[in-house]
Amino acid sequence: MFWGVLVHIGYNLYLEESVELPAVFHDSPYPYFQYSPQLQVDDRVWRDLVDYAADNGVTAMVLDLADGIRYDSHPEIAVENAWSTERLRDEIAGLRQRGIEPLPKLNFGAGHDIWLKEYSRQVSTPVYYAVVDDLIDEVGAIFDGPRFFHLGMDEETYDNQRFNEYVTIRQGDLWWNDLLRMVGRVEANGSRAWVWSDAAWHNPREYYRRMPTSVLQSNWYYNPGFAADETGRPKRVNHDDGTAYMTYLDLQDAGFDQVPTGSVFPPFDNMVGTAEFARDRLDPARVVGMLNSVWVPPLESTRHLQMAMIDRLAEARDAYEGKRSS
User: Fold this and answer.
1) Phi, psi of 236 (to 5 degrees)
2) What is the rounded distance in angstroms from the CA atom of residue 220 to the CA atom of residue 260?
3) d(Cα 21, Cα 269) in Å, to the nearest integer?
4) Pair type for strands 2-8 and 268-269
């Protein structure tokens, strides 16, 4: 079982370059959602983050690469000052030397694929499929056949794209076709595909019927409250009404392995609660790992959040392992 954190190398996942930051985001952590033509990684913060993670029991780091890498297959995707593939290989080696398993993430959900540049407006076309295949192949090779490969695929809804000028929503057979195509590509390269599980909130019967149990699941739930029992367990859940933690139980019932995911992202801070819920309610044989997230790029202005993410993960590990060993 791994104890992991999610770190963004590329961060253009939210707003198109042509879109000004909406006023609703000005007085919150969300200003980082504004598109940036330059890499948003401070090298000093990155180095300190790796050191702090290694010193505090982090055993896996999920790197959300997006447009933060100048891919050999598609250099046109990269932002200014993006890491070269050689730099990425060096950083991967450094993580392994510190006892941290590096795991790749490329979010192909149409709600978070601004990083794909012009290809984000060609979803489900032959050109798009070729680019997706190239990136999965290249990243898989750079990571030397990682154990898990995160494909994202969350929040492909109108609400999550409502500020953009171009909105793409796949649904029905097309969403499943594209997802399973990506899963097949990941598996052909010897890795296990991994996705966010929030599509199950909206159409659970179809999700549990059509999603292969080979695909690792990460339901994400960032609110503080967890019910003590299953009385009145809802058939549909969502994050906003505070019931999305129930998806952890639904995934278990459906036979999936999972990585419960919490967050340190104001006003949320629930990694310890997530670990306690997993400890008390989930079969440890089905919990492959625990993941904490922060959803801001690693900059000097967000250093405190990056380090808090690691602190809370360490506390969560103590809560989870302490109870199980007693």
Assistant:
1) -125, 140
2) 6
3) 25
4) unpaired
**pLDDT per residue over 1-56, tens digit each?**
999 999 999 999 999 999 999 998 887 777 889 999 999 999 999 999 999 999 99
Residue type, position 40, single letter: Q
d(CA 265, CA 176): 30
Phi/psi at 240 (nearest 5 deg)?
-65, -35
Which residues does 283 contact at the CB level (< 8 Å), separation at least 6? 252
Residue 38 contacts residue 81 (beta carbons within 8 Å): yes
Region 120-136: mean pLDDT is 98
CB neighbours (10 Å) of residue 258? 23
Q: What are the E-state strand segments in 46-173?
A: 60-64, 69-70, 83-84, 101-105, 148-150
193, 213 contact by CB (below 8 A): no
Question: Do residues 258 and 288 lie in contact, with contact meaning Cβ atoms separated by under 8 Å?
Answer: yes
With beta carbons less than 8 A apart as the criterion, state whether 249 and 222 touch: no
Q: Per-residue pLDDT tens for 229-238? A: 555 555 556 6
- What's the rounded Cα separation, in Å, for the pair 47 and 51? 6
pTM for the full model? 0.95
How many of the other CB atoms lie within 10 Å of CB of 270? 23
Q: Which has the closest alpha carbon to 55: 85, 22, 100? A: 100
End-to-end CA distance of the chain: 18
Longest CA–CA span in the chain (Å) reads 55
Region 111-115: what's the mean pLDDT? 98
CA distance 260 to 66: 22
pLDDT at 239: 62
Given its phi and psi angles, is residue 66 left (phi above 0), alpha (psi -120 to 50 degrees) or beta? Answer: left
